[in-house]
Structures are given as C-alpha cells and as structure tokens.
Design goal:
This protein is mostly beta strands. Strands 2, 4, 5, 6, 9, 10 and 11 form a seven-stranded mixed beta sheet that branches. A four-stranded antiparallel beta sheet has the order 1-3-8-7, with no helix packed on it.
Length: 120
C-alpha cells in the first residue's frame, strides 16, 4: 500500500523559513494532484496549496506570495517552501495525494502530519 511521509516541520521564528517534504512510497502507478493542508487547534483543516501533474499550482490566499509548492515526479515527492512565516501559520501540516496504485484504483491518501510552530 501507499504511504505518504512528511518531514521538515519544526519550530521557527516569525519571518523565518521551513521546507516541508512529502515522500510517497509503495506500488505507485501514477500521481495526480498532490497538496498540503493544515489544521490548527480548534480550526478546520484547510487547503494550503496543491499542484497538478502539469505543475499548475493553487494556493490559499493567506499563503500566496510566501509559500511555494513544487514536485519532483522522479522521486514521488512534493515540497512546500514556506517563507516569511507568521505565527498564524502554526499548525499540523498534512500531505495529501490523489494516487493510483498498480493493483487498485485511484484514491486519496494522507500523511500523518508534521508540526510547524512559528514563534512571535
């Protein structure tokens, strides 16, 4: 089965940067849209950014101009470069992938999340 593993989270000062990585492993046949979502305590999970197979991207208004999503198809990895971080960016960040495996149909997968904490 497919597994998505996030890394790169941590504690950073406001104005700083972090780069999150999400590596997909398993019997992957194809990858459609991949994205990053986040959830802060007491809030709904929200879209941060997505990237499709042609590298068209979509961003939440709150992160436009500060975050950049990218992908390395050869490595089945998606990245989120986060610059000019703000305390309100503090959340658990989840990797999401719309994937198809060799022995099953296309479906949605989620990572376990990585904590990003931005201090003021």
């Amino acid at each position: 089965q497919v597994q998505l593993v996030e890394s790169g989270g941590g504690l950073v000062q406001a104005g700083g940067s972090l780069r999150l990585s999400c590596a997909a492993s398993g019997s992957i046949f194809s990858i459609n849209v991949m994205g990053w979502y986040r959830q802060a305590p007491g809030k709904q999970r929200e879209l941060v950014a997505t990237i499709n197979p042609t590298r068209r991207t979509n961003y939440a208004d709150s992160v436009k101009g500060r975050f950049t999503i990218s992908r390395d198809s050869a490595k089945n990895t998606v990245y989120l470069q986060m610059n000019s971080l703000k305390p309100e960016d503090t959340a658990v960040y989840y990797c999401n992938g719309d994937l198809q495996t060799y022995n099953s149909g296309r479906r949605d997968y989620w990572g376990q999340g990585t904590q990003v904490t931005v201090s003021s």
